Every structure is written in C-alpha cells, then in structure tokens.
Amino acid sequence: MPLPESLHIGPALAAVSSTVTPRGAHALDPLVAFASLAEIASTFHQPLKPEIAALYARKAAANPRLLFTALLGRRFTHDRLLDPAAIAAWKAGLLPLLRARRLGALILQFPWAFRFTTENRAFLIELRRAFREFPLAAEFRHDSWLGEEARGTLIDYHLAFVNVDQPQSFRATPPTALLTSGLAVVRLHGRSGPAARHYLYSLDELEDWLPRIRRLAGHASRTLVVTANPGPDQALVNALQLQEMLGAAPLLAPAPLIRRYPAELAAFRANRPVQTTFLRDDLPTRAVA
Prior knowledge:
Blueprint: E1 7-11, H1 29-34, E2 37-40, H2 50-60, E3 67-71, H3 74-77, H4 84-99, E4 103-109, H5 118-130, E5 136-139, H6 148-156, E6 160-165, E7 183-188, H7 203-219, E8 222-227, H8 234-245, H9 255-260
Parallel strand pairs: 1-8, 2-3, 3-4, 4-5, 5-6, 6-7, 7-8
Helix pairs in contact: 2-4, 7-8
C-alpha cells in the first residue's frame, strides 16, 4: 500500500546534525530531499523572524509535499501570557509559511499540569481565538483531556488533537488515534525521561504506531507525523523508517546517515556512494583483542 499523498512524516529541524548536512548547506536542505515534514521547535522560545520563515518557504519549493509544523511559544502555553505585542510577533514570524501554504500545524504544547478544568478550557478557547488564522493542534500531556467534554471542546473550536508517544507516568496521556478535526497530528517524543539526550525507536515500537497512523490517515484530510525524539539524527532515522514501513518509494536517505545506521537504513539508497561500517560515529569505539 503506497504512502498516501495526505500523509507527511518528518523530524524536528533542530534534530538534524551537521554530519548529515553538507558543508555550507542549510539544516533544512536534507529534509527537503528526504522528508515531507519538518518541525520548527525554536519558536517554543522565541518568535521566528519573518525573513527566516520566507527562506524556509523558498527552500521548500524544491519539494512540493514538504510542510512545516511549528511550536507556539511557551509564554502562551506554559506562562499563559497573551499580551498583544507577543501575539503579533509570533504571528508575523509564521505568516510567510502560512501564506505559502507550507504551515501544516501550529502546535500548542501544554505541560502535564495543564489539566482539563473550566478555567483551562476557557484559556484554551481564548488562545484559539488569539491565533484564529492558523491551523492549531493541541498537545496535552495529562489524560484528563481524553474525556468527552474535553474532546467536544476541541471539536467545537476546530482544534486538532495531538496523539503523543511519551514516557508513561501517572495520568500521562497514553498512545491514541484521536481525530477532532480534519487535521490529524502524531508526535513521537521517545519513551525515556526528559533528561535523555538520545532515543532511537525500535522497529517494534514504530510498528506499534502503524495501525493508529493508518487509521488517522484513512479519515483525516491531512495527517502529520513528527518524530520528536531527542538526539542527533535519531529522529530523522525513525522518520525514514516510518516512511519505509508505510510504503514510501523510492527509499532515499542521506549518505552519512546510511553509513552511521547501516542496519536501520539497509533498504535505503543514497545519492552518492556509501562506505558502510559496523561502528556508529556517535558511539565510543573499543579495541578488539
């Protein structure tokens, strides 16, 4: 079964290391060639400069299917500050991507402490109205947002529900395949703690998500799957593996990535010859007697 045109898979832009990026190239360049989605995580801390957003849109022109997701600033989702100047700054930074029809979703990433309450429901609606021009997707870490009233709120206000894979803890949102708008979003964070610097999903862990992704893609007008697991290039490896498992063709990957992950990317071709090795660059070597 081929990969649906409406299904877009890719990693966070910051997760692509300089090893994969050719010298003198932009970090986005490998994703333009090998992915259909890139997440802009820097907007969680500060607004994007409009000229940078315009650059992203120009670079994306080489891949008609490439879309972006971006995180809304933590000042809105964590600090709950809705000052007009900040709202205007974040909007200005994202409008070039929106106007170029490259912004797949603006992610509202809430902390675990943001539970479903009357007060938090009202704030979510206020935030939705503040960024009404954008396709919004809300990520909740607390399972109280799976209740009927909470889901009804998302449906009523045209907010996509972000289906997350995350470390499981008390009342953490479990893996789901929930659709509350025409947009389906999945974000895979890894299953280790927040202090982890690396996390590579196993094939079994990725396969566990395939039925949910297929179910969402079969009902949504657009499905975005972000591999947001930490580490240099691990998210890109997992994004490529998901593409392979879901029927993408042809299977292409950056040559340095195939060299570092020959087993994981055994089915992929590179755009230049690859010297494979059994040792990964990101692991310590040891002498063999």
